Structure formats: structure tokens, C-alpha cells
């Protein structure tokens, strides 16, 4: 991720370093290039504009321009602001309060929701938790089988959902199943659609209002760039998301969704999917990513 952005910024800052002392126009020119690089990385237009304005505010000041290493100072400001843009601190999953902890996975079809439910179960299991998987995607019958298979692979119990049942009933009945199995984190894999629609949202709202999950995680495909950002905004308005899991980031050279989702929707990215394998799920660290972008 961020390969092109990283290369472009390196070039811009190399030029900036070549100036020695910096004038306001040197900084403006560099920031113009940063803005273009962000837009090419598919960062939301408004986000890029606000980002540059913020950096300019901080960079065009006596302190930076008079310092012995003004270009370094500008680069540091860009790094800090990139980190801020992606949410600043890493946001861990909320496992507070009394068990069982209820996690609801939502997202569009094909985003990687079912796979991510399995990955998340494995991650929690490795942390010493006892996860329980609940296939509540009756829309795509193969999804139930898919989750059962994943559960068997990682040896995590899966609720025996009946595709003819109402998803809300499946979720409610799964609580007793989880309790019988002695599980402390319940992961509800809900239905997706090819696009955000009223019927999908109504079903998710019904599940949400009956079960009050403590995490509502949107699984979004990084490769879809600004579409993922719009999906995050739409789901957040309807359901109140607590976090985003951005999938397929290893195949996303641009990184626009990772850079824009937080700023546009206010929802933090908590985890990233970095491959098809079940252990390819990682916490999202804005500071490390900002460091990587700037080399
Ligand atoms: P769902 O319709 O949202 O439940 O999507 P699935 O879980 O069936 O995933 C759709 C496809 O995306 C599958 O082929 C997954 O293996 C793949 N996938 C999910 N997460 C990742 C990821 O982080 N990286 C890659 N490369 N593929 C992923």
C-alpha cells in the first residue's frame, strides 16, 4: 500500500531539501505536489484540501522557516498530520465489560466479511478468548457453509443456522448456543448486498436494536477506494459503526480508503486484512503507516 504516494512524496521532499532555507513559495510549491500525490492516491478531494491547509498553517511560520533544517521540519509536520488523518492512535477492539462480547460484522457482498469473521475469531482465539461464530447471512446460502468450514479449520464453534430462519432470530438463538459452548466473544456475520440498500439496512438495524452489539465493524474493500469511504459513511449514519476492517490492503497500491475513511466518516480503522489466509489480519497502526509513507 501507498507505494506510489511514497515515491512521489520522496521526490517532492528531495527537492525541498535542496533549497536550504525555505521561502513561503518553496513550501507552497511542495504542498501543491503533496496535494496532487494525495489525489492520485485516490484520497477524498475535501480531505486532501483540508490536509494541505492544515500543514501550510503549521509550516509557513517563523519557527519552521528559520530553523536549521526547515525541510526536515516540514516533513515532520506532514508525517504528524498523516498519522492524525488516519486516526492518530491505534484503536483496539472493545472487549470491555461483561462477557459475552457481541461483535456484529457488516458490509457489502464480496468485501471479505465472512473471511474476516473467521480471521477475527482466530485472532481472538490466539489472544486466549473463546470466540463463537454465527452465520446470519441467509441472503447468500453459501455464506453459512463457508463460515462453518472456516470454523472447522480454526476449531472455533459455529452456530448451526437455518437459512430459512429470520436473521434476527438466528442471532438471538445463537446467544444460548454460545453460552452452552462456553464462549465469550460472539461474532455475527450478517448479510451483505452488492450495494447499500434500504432492505439491507432495515435488517441490520433490526439485529442491532435487538442485540446491542458492543462492536459494529464494517468490513470494507480497500481496492474500491472512494466507494469504500461512501459505504462507511452510509453504514455509520444508519447503524453507528464502532470501527472499520479494511480488507485487501496488500493489493491496494493507492491507499485512498485508508487515508480518507477516518476523516470523512469519523470511524476509526481498527484492523486491516492483508491476504486471503486466515492469519492475514492485523491491527491498524496510523503512526507506523505514516512513517512508511514517508520512508
Ligand atoms: P463476503 O461476501 O463479504 O462475505 O466476502 P468473502 O469473505 O467471501 O470474501 C470475498 C473474497 O475476498 C474471498 O476470495 C476472500 O478470500 C477475499 N479476501 C477477504 N479478505 C481479503 C484480504 O485481506 N486480502 C485478499 N487478497 N483477499 C481477501
TrEMBL record:
Enzyme Commission (EC) number: 3.6.5.4
Main location: cytoplasm
UniProt keyword terms in alphabetical order: Cytoplasm, GTP-binding, Hydrolase, Nucleotide-binding, Ribonucleoprotein, RNA-binding, Signal recognition particle
Residues the record lists as binding GTP: 107-114, 189-193
Top-level lineage group: Bacteria
Transmembrane segment boundaries: none
One biological process term in Gene Ontology: SRP-dependent cotranslational protein targeting to membrane
Domain notes: Composed of three domains: the N-terminal N domain, which is responsible for interactions with the ribosome, the central G domain, which binds GTP, and the C-terminal M domain, which binds the RNA and the signal sequence of the RNC.
Function: Involved in targeting and insertion of nascent membrane proteins into the cytoplasmic membrane. Binds to the hydrophobic signal sequence of the ribosome-nascent chain (RNC) as it emerges from the ribosomes. The SRP-RNC complex is then targeted to the cytoplasmic membrane where it interacts with the SRP receptor FtsY.
Membership in a protein family: Belongs to the GTP-binding SRP family. SRP54 subfamily.
Protein name: Signal recognition particle protein
Organism: Desulfoferula mesophila
Gene name as annotated: ffh
Residues of the full protein shown: 1 to 295 of 446
